[in-house]
Amino acid sequence: MPRLAALIVASAVLVAGAAYGQDVAGYPSRPVKIIVDVAPGGGVDTATRLVAAKLEYQFSQPFVVENRPGAAGSIGAEVVYAAEPDGYTLLASSPSPLAINQWLYKKLSYNPAGFQPIAMMSRIPNVLVVRSDFPAKTVAEAIAYLKANPGKVSFASQGVGTASHLTGAMLMKLTGTSMVHVPYKGTAPILTDIIAGHVDMTFIQVSNAFVMHEAGKARILALATDKRLDFLPAIPTLAEVGLPISTDTWNAISAPPRTPAEIVARLNSAVNWALKQPDVRQRLTDLKTIIGGDKGPAEAAKFVENERRQWGELVRAAGLQPQ
After folding, report:
1. pLDDT range class, residue 23, cuts 50, 70, 90
2. Which domains are present in the chain?
3. Is residue 117 within 8 Å of 297, Cβ to Cβ?
């Protein structure tokens, strides 16, 4: 009887393994959900929806985009981290849940290093933006104004621990100034309040700030980039005015821990193909983004690992302590 029981268990394992292998071979055979960790309307959301449409075309299955903003991306990340590792629940995120949050929070309900990066969709430089009637016209004037008005100027971010928050924290650290941090759940509400004059400034992706700047609804004072941008030749970098700050926001698609390598590879190939399509490239170019799609799964994982280390250094340099 013990030998018979052992044979039955072994047979069940083999059958389950074979069935799972068939699922992998036929993936995807049903709708796939992509959880976006920010509110609709920002760079991550836009890139994800462009890619999702192409994935539907390739696989003849729905790729449903669902926004789960909040807690610097942790709300969406928690959902995906706890999901079955079968490729049917994916995460589209900014750097926060994968590379930043572990340095700012003592306890997370997920392990940022446990996600399996699938592909990099895009990278978007950050810029310093102020409301249209902000008194300062240059970075030097802005710093002087901050020093003259400690704790009176508000700066918006996409949430605690996001790239926009940390870039603002670094600015205060380097200039010895103090601002009121106003965290939001995404990019769109920040744009609304900057235009309305409810907040004074923000560090935000140039893709979102460029149109406002051109329309005179807000002003870009400086670039958080290593060099000037071709489409904003008159705007200086922060480094040019003595502030060595360079940050950007990248968008990645990731899978839960233990997702089969075959599924990760299949999705990587499909996302990279999507990013090469002329209409997708044109849309992302119009949004002033640096288009991804040039990394395999191993390269994407290495990129996120390096980003995790670099953001940790930035958090320490900014003097922020885990909460």
Report:
1. low
2. 29-123+250-317 (3.40.190.150), 125-241 (3.40.190.10)
3. yes
